[in-house]
Amino acid sequence: MDIHRCRFVPYNPQAINALAFSHPPSTELQGRGVPTLRLAIGRANGDIELWNPSKGTWFQETILRGGKDRSIEGLAWTVDPGEKDSEGNDLPGKLRLFSIGYSSVVTEWDLEKGRPARHSSGNYGEIWCLAAQPRWESRNKKKDGKQLPPAEGEYMGQHLAVGCADGAIVILSTADGDLKYLRTMRPSTKKSRVLNITFQNRNTIVAAYADSSIRIFDIRSGKLLRTVTLGKGPNKAVKELLVWSVKCLPDGTIVSGDSAGEVRFWDSKNYSLIQRIQSHQADVLDIAVSADGESVVSAGADQRTAVYRLKAPEKGAKTRRWVEVMHRRYHTHDVKALAVYETKDISVFVSGGLDTVPVVVPLRSIGKELHRKLPSLPQSPPLSSSPSSRLLMGWWDREVNIWRVSQPSKSLESQQHRLVAKVLFQGEENLTSAALSSDGKLLVAASVSQIKAFCLSPREDGDKPGLQVNKLEIPFEISKWGAKEIAISPDSKWLCFVRSDNVICMARIDIDPEIPGRPQILPGISKLRRAQRNVQRGKLHHGSLGAYDRTIRCIAFSSDSNIVACGDLAGFVDAWVLEDKSNLLTNGQIPEKAADSKLSDDDSSDEEAGSTNTYGQRWIVPRFDSPIPRLKSGVLLMTFRPSYESQSKHLTNGVTSNSSPSHNLSIGDDRLVVLTTEHHISEFNVLEGKLTGWSRRNPKSYLPKDFTIVKDRAMGALWDKKGTSERLWLYGPSWLWMFDLAQDFPAPAEPDNEEKAVAAINNDSTTEPSPSKKRKRGETKESKTRQPNSGAGDRVPYWQDNIGLGRKMRKVIGDDGETAQWIPIDLKKPADPAQMGDEAADHYEEPSKSILAEFRREPQGDGSGSQEENGEWQQQQQLDEGTSAIRPQSSSNLPNEASEANDHDVEGTTADLQVQEVPGSESKAESRTKHRRSRNPRRWWHTFKYREILGIVPLGQGFTAGDAAGASWANEGMGGLEVAVVERPMWDVALPGRYVRDYE
Q1: Cβ(860)–Cβ(874) below 8 Å
Q2: How far apart are CA 357 and CA 338, in angstroms?
Q3: How many Å apart are CA 223 and CA 675, to the nearest integer?
Q4: CA 49 to CA 60: how far, in whole Å?
Q5: Looking at CB atoms within 10 Å, which of 28, 65, 186, 540 has the fewest?
Q6: How far apart are CA 935 and CA 933, in angstroms?
Q7: Fold for domain 400-515?
Q8: Where are the domains of the chain?
Q9: Which of 853, 965, 949, 806 is CA-nearest to residue 390?
Q10: Smallest Cα–Cα separation from 977: which of 917, 913, 906, 923?
Q11: pLDDT digits (tens, 9 = 90+) for 896-933
C-alpha cells in the first residue's frame, strides 16, 4: 500500500468549554455505569459531542452541530419523572440535555434528531452559568424499606437555574416536557456577574459572583439567605476576587475556587470559612467533587490539576482536615471544565480545556492507574476523495476545501498538492456531512436544515489549475429536510441521505440532458423502511434516551452499488437491494401486473418500500427467514468486501424469472463486514441474513491480542485486494491495522497448556519482565489475574509501582506452617455474575464460541463442495506476526503467492525487510529464515507510528504500467492501493496563548 502523509488540511479542533455526565455519581450503584450513561462535551464552535463510556470503550457516538458565532459555555442534564403506559407499567423518565453559550438563550437538544428542540429566553442579561436541580429522592421510608411517594403537589422533576451578567438568577421549569420561566432572584446590592452556580439541596442555590462574594438563595421564596465575602486577593492592586467555581459536597459543605488560585471550604450551616489551600499559581477555573464527599478535584489556568482528600482526624482532634494529595499537568493549556462519575466499580473524572483534548483520570485509584487521553478529532472523518480525479475533500464548520494530490515524483521541488476549490456556505448551521462522487464531478453537502449540491468541472482556461464550482438545483423535497449523513454510490448514480428523523432516502443521479457532462439529482425520493426491532426497556432510575439508540451511525454501498446497508447505535443492521425492471418498461412505464408481481406481502406501500422510478428501479428488502441479528454493541463502521469480477451469480430476491432476471451480483458483493464499538469483527451474507463461514470460524476470542487491547476506537476502513489476498485496513487516531480476511486468524493458546499460560502472563504489561519462566515463590493464580481498571487507563505496571509495602501477605494456618499461602492485598472479591449483566454474559459466551470455531475449522471428510460450505482446508501451524508455516491447499479464498508481491508495509517496502521495525514484533520472528517468511503471507500487521490521524482516503489503485513514474516506483517495490493519510498533530494547531510559569 502506497501512502501519502498529508498535513496540509487545516482542520482545527475546538477548545472544550463544558463537560457534563448524564447521571450523577453514586457509590451505591453496582457495575460500571448504567446503559444510558453519556458524557456531553461542549466545544467553542457550538458543537456538542456525545460520548458513551460503556465498559471503558469511550466511544464518540454523535456530534450535535453548532452554528455561526455560537459557543457552548455550559451543559446540564435532567431526567423527567417516570410515567405509566396504557397497561399501567412504570416507564423511565426521559433524559434531556440543555446548553448555554454567550447569549440570553437556554437551548434544549433533541438527541434523536440531532438538532435543537426548543429555546427559552427572557428579559434578562447574558447567561454565564447553568445548573440542574438534584434529582428527587424520598427521605422517608416505609417499614418494609421502600421509599414513600412524594407529597401531594410536590414536583419530582428537575428545575434549571441560570446565572446572568446582571446578577440575576433565573429559575426555569422543565415540567410537562417544556421549558418555561418560573421566577427571578436578584441580590439587593450592585449588579455583578454570576460566574458559577450550584445546588446545595433541592431548595437552596449557591451562586459565585465576580465581586468577591458567594450568595445563597432559597428558590421557593426567592429570598437571599446569606452573603459570604472572600475579601481581597494576595495582589493588592486587585480589589475584588473572581469566584470562578463553586460546588457542594453531599453533607452541604461549600467548596469554591477563585482567581487567587485558592480552594476554600465553607461550613454548610453557618457558612464560615473552614480551610483554604493555595494549590494553583493562577486562577482556579473549575472544581469537581466525589460522590462520597471525601475527594475534591480542582483545575486552573496554570494547566495544573490537583486532588484533595479528607484525611482522618489526628489524635485528640475533633475535625478532619483537607490535604492536597497530588497535582499534575495533564494539559498544555488552561483547564476549563471538570466532570466526575462514580459507581462501586468505576471512579473517574474528565477534564478539558483550550488544548482540545479530553483526559480521563482515575479518581478513587489515582496513582494506581494510568490516565487516558481521548481523541480530539471527530470519530467520523470529515474527509472524502475521488480516486479517478485524485481529489481530496475536507469539510468543517461551514466550508468545504478540495485539493488535488499529484502522483509521486522523485523531484523534491515539485508541488505534491494544490488547493483547487473552496466552497463557503451561507446560513447559520454548521455542516453535518459532505460527500464527493468517485468520478469527482458531484459534491453534496448538508446541514440539519438543508442539502446543497455542486458540479465540479475543470476550468475552461488552462492557465489556472483550479476547479469550476457550479451550484445545482435540487428538488425541494430533498433540500428542505436536511441530513445527518450523506453517501454517494460508487457508480455515482444514487444519493443516499439520512434525514434528521433517521429516515433513509434514496435519490437518483443522472446526466443533465441540457448540459452534457453535468450531473443532476432527479425529483422523487424512495424512503427505505427499516425492520421493526424490539428494544429492551431500561430500569426506572436509568432514565430513557427514547429512540436515540436507533440513530444511524454509518451507510455503506456495495462495490457495484446494488446493495446499501446502514447500522445504528443499538447494534442493528438493515440492508436493501436494487431491483431492476428496466427490461419491462413500456413507453416509460411498467405494466401494473409486472410492477406488483414481486411485491412481498408487507411491502404494500410504495412510499415505505421504495417506489419504482422512471428507470424501472426500486430498493427492496432482501427476503430471508429473519433479519440480520442484533450485535452486542453499537455499529462502529461497515464496509462490503470487494467483488470477484471473474464470476457472478444471479440475484432474484427469491423470485425466479427465466426471461428477465433482476440483475447480477458478483460473488462476495453481499458480504458485509461490520466492526462494533467493542472492536468485534463480524461478517454477514446480506442476502441470507446470516454470518459468513469466515465469521463463524473467527470469533472475537480469535482476534490478535494486540488488537483487542487497543483503546482508541477505529475511525475507518479500506480494502486492498490484490491477487487472492483481501486485506482490510483499519485505522484509528494513532494506529493502523491490516487483516487479511482471505485467511483465518490463529487459534488462541489453550488455557490448560502451562507453558503457553506462563508465556502469556510474562507478556502482560502489568508484570515485571523476567528472563526466567520458572514460577516464583508466592505466585498464585489469583495474583496473576488482571483486575479491571476503574474507567480510565490500565493499572500502573507492578515493576513501575513497586514502592512501599508489598502487594501480597503470607497467611499461615496452624502451628506447622504447611498450609501457608500468599494472598494479594488488593485482590477484589469476584463480582456477582447477576450484577455484572452483559459483561458476565460476554465472559461466559466466548469459550463456547471458541469451541464452535474449532469444530468449524476441522476438515470434513464427507461430500464435496467449496471450502466455505464444507470446511475442507488444512489445519495450519501458527507463527508469529500473523504468518502460517503450512500453506493451505488450493482454494479461491486463501492466498497462494509469494509474500514479496503482497506484503507491503506502510512505507511501500516488503514486510520481510521491515520486520525489525514493526512495533511489538516478537524476538522469535528475528530467528525465522527469509525463505520461510517469503512463503507465508501475513495474517495481520500494525503500527502506532502515526499521530492524530484525521482520516485516510483512497487516491487510486497504484500506477499504470505505461506511466514512467509508476514504472520507477514499481521497481522500488511500491504499488497496490494508494491512499492519503491526513494527519493533524496538535503542534500544528493554532492555540491561544497560555500561562507561562516563572521557571519557564
Answers
A1: no
A2: 13
A3: 56
A4: 7
A5: 28
A6: 5
A7: Methylamine Dehydrogenase; Chain H (2.130.10)
A8: 400-515, 550-702
A9: 965
A10: 906
A11: 333 333 333 433 333 333 333 333 334 444 444 444 44
